[in-house]
Amino acid sequence: MSELDRLAALVGIEPYFHDIFGARRDTGDATKRALIAAMGLGAGTDAEVAESLRTLEERAWSRLLPPVTVVTEGAPITVPVAARIGFDGAMLAWTLTEEGGAVHRGDIPFAAVADIDRRDVDGVAHHRRSLLLPVKPGLGYHTLTVSLGGGEPTSMRVIVAPERCVLPEEVAPQGGRCWGVGLQLYGLRSATDWGIGDFDDLGRFARTAGKLGATLVGLNPLHALFPADPGHFGPYSPSSRSFLNILYIDVEAVPDLAECEEARAMLAGDAFRHAIVAAREAELVDYLAVSRLKMPVLETLFHSFRARHLDLSTKRAAAFDRFRAEIGPALRRHAVFEALHEHFFLGESQLWSWQSWPAEFQDPDSPAVADFAGQHTERVLFYEWLQWEADRQLGAAAEVGRQAGLGIGFYRDLAVAVNPGGAAAWSDRTGLVQGASVGAPPDAFNLKGQNWGLSPLSPVGLVETAYEPFIEALRANMRHAGALRIDHVMALKHLFWIPADGSDGAYVEYPFEDLLRIVALESVRNRCVVIGEDLGTVPDGFRPALHDAGILSYRVLYFERDAAGDFLPPDDYPRRSMVTVSTHDLATFKGFWEGRDLDWRVRLDLYPDAAARDKDAWDRGADRWRLLRALNREGLRPPAYPNDEGDQPWSRPLSEAVHRFLAGSPGAIAMVQIEDALCEDEQPNLPGTTDQHPNWRRRLRLAVEELPGDDGVTALAAVLRAERVGPG
To answer: Which top CATH class is 74-161?
Structure first.
């Protein structure tokens, strides 16, 4: 094996993969060099490869302890300790400090610790010994500190995790077969919205869903985007996955409005009220218009909060300070980025990405950044206050849902990665990769593959940071939630990276077992069910591993077929799964039946040729036939469909039959998309498009106040209730 191959293997670059057509794709040398460089290691020349290889291989020997170890609760904890040969007469002293504060200490002759490996490092013989701790701490994040022969102590993180996540039957009052409603929050309408669904609307939607018998409400990612640039609104390309999109704040629900006459006067102005009405009545979300309405009022409310509370140290000021302390330094760093992004982008639009800022501002720990934050204290506090208010309103909406009977509550969505120009990438130069982006290899739906333009986490950086960026993202998205959907969950095992230099992509492996255990730990601590979006190319053995870890599979009716292409019967769906007819990236059921998504592809010239277009149209006709056959097999085909021909038009009874079919499966959670309940024919997002299709902008045809009286909503809810928890 060449040094380049050894280095690539050491950092997790897989030597080949098989695409969806079964063809083997070998990872070329150019791709290996580019991806290694993206992880911050030299690989441009053979000499650089040799030096990077030596650095990585010897790093594990030149420090006493690795950064982190992850073990299952109750299992023995063994820790590798590396040192140069010559300490056999020394004592090894250790201290394990549990997360809760309990402290365990001990010492042992180093010679008595089992020797497991040896190596020369820069001509000096080293050995590695395996320290078995005589204690087994409970679940949590603990710290082990070791010193050898009275030398400098070294610390590492010890993560003790459960075997699996919590399951729906452990948290849902009615047991394991429950149902929920999927929602794109921005699409909610109400009598009081400002052109976009907000957290107050979400609370009202949650109340309706709970009263209809749902156990959970599924949401699009609520991640922080770019307040200075509201035109960047894709929820799966966030600035940070650890903070919230502040445009979801309901301005009229901010407590400071009652105290701020200036803000109330702004809202009462004729021009302002007309602008709100125009935004509310728009067919699509106009993010720029929403931002122009909300941000000036929020700024005014913050100044009122500053004068009436922060400067006077009131109880509200103390609550704000508690939030800042709870979230920690990450909140301030995020707020500093927001202020910097606003400063540079609004000054010169070409300075959108932090990589284009002056060099001294590209490092979050630089003196220039500290000076900027000191000079713009008010603006940094404003962005911290916005996160506090967004978190408060999301928590209030979650409480409304719980009071209305949502046994699980909200299920939040964790995007696979972040925008390389955003706050997370700026804040974390160790854990996040620059110089490569996340995507997918060619498949039947995207023959050219996909490049999502997102920055992946570095497997090397993850270990070096003791998994902190991953833990932070999980914890943030389980907040005010009873379930978490992990988008493209295969990223726990490997992720397809595409080099920025245009080289072919390759899969990069991650520490799968460690990440699974951490997911389970956060699931148990937060009483949060976990669903893994396992669509696309799934590695061998991956789904069984998810099952054993208690992560629910994500099963979409359109894709669940046998080898002949027929739809699987309900009984073939796994018990540990969330089942759904469609997703935000696919046609609604009405759109599927009528070929609305295919119409869009024709309109936007997305087909490579007429043959591909005609094949899709023929296949869709066959799918209608196959679906009617599947319904007939279960005794669910509506009377209005006397045969399986599939040329009859869409109808609401057909939609109800399909949802009954799916809800009758053993899957733990059955989801219905609100677009299907409202008989919409347009999907939220059309993959492969940007501004050609109104992605992430569609608004529901009914206001949230009208949903309880809508026949389609109530009828579909009755279907789900009957199949999941019995009549009533």
So the answer is: mainly beta
